[in-house]
Amino acid sequence: MNVVIQGAGRGIGLALAQKAIASGVSHLFLTARDPATTQGFADLPPGPAITWLALDNLIPDSIERAGEHIRSKIDKLDRVICCSGVLKDEIATPEKRLADIDADRLIYAYQVNAIGPVLLAKALLQTLRGDHPLSFASISARVGSISDNRLGGWYAYRASKAAQNQLMRTLSIEMARYNPNACIATLHPGTVDTALSKPFQAHVPNGGLFTAEDSAAMLWLVLNGLTPTQTGGFFAYDGKPIPY
């Protein structure tokens, strides 16, 4: 199995990379903005079965370069998982009210959460075509569900995740013509003990906070079980569908 994990430097991405290695992949392509500085690079250094590539969702050329390198090494990919996401950092701040909205922060959230994954699919298209089993997943969030939005707030994060879901759904329709055995999905990993959720963990109920390793193990099982008839779906860590 040839696998790409985008955003493998830490958190869920790193845990998924470790799960992939434990599952006996043939070749694992891992990405990070600056791979050599990450925990993932230290834990899973480059070798015959592991290739690290620099990729930044804010720099489309870096996505194309990573895709070009992967295309030059292998003919087909069996699994791609896009893990990068942003909720709060030095640029993004979850909005509590309309007055907090900032155009630049909205664009930034869209670039990282929604645009990056679909550009990676574009860069990898040559390796996705065919009739081989393929799962292409992008880590989304339940708050990206429009029908499930009852609390409001978090405009940029909610909207960018909804856009991510729509882009992957649209990709699934086109990809069915290129590879009838493909399943394109967005996945909700649960609330995971990572840097992304750290500022908001006080409100998580007991038993509702997963380790990255637990979440990765569940997501890997979900991907193992998905079929082409489920392409375009949005699924939780337990395999249950989430309404858009």
* Continuous helix count: 6
For the sheet with most strands, the description reads: 7 strands, parallel
The H/E string reads: EHEHEHEHEHEEEHE
Strand content: 15-25%
Task: Order the strands across the largest sheet as they lie in space.
Answer: 3-2-1-4-5-6-9
Number of E strands: 9
Question: Which CATH top level class fits?
Answer: Alpha Beta
Whole-number total of structural domains: 1
End-to-end Cα distance, whole Å, is 30 Å
Helicity, as a percent range = 25-40%
- What structural class results from the helix and strand content? alpha/beta
Shape: globular
The CATH architecture can be named as 3-Layer(aba) Sandwich
Global Rg: 17 Å
Per CATH, the superfamily is NAD(P)-binding Rossmann-like Domain
CATH topology: Rossmann fold
Mean pLDDT: 94
Low-confidence stretches: none
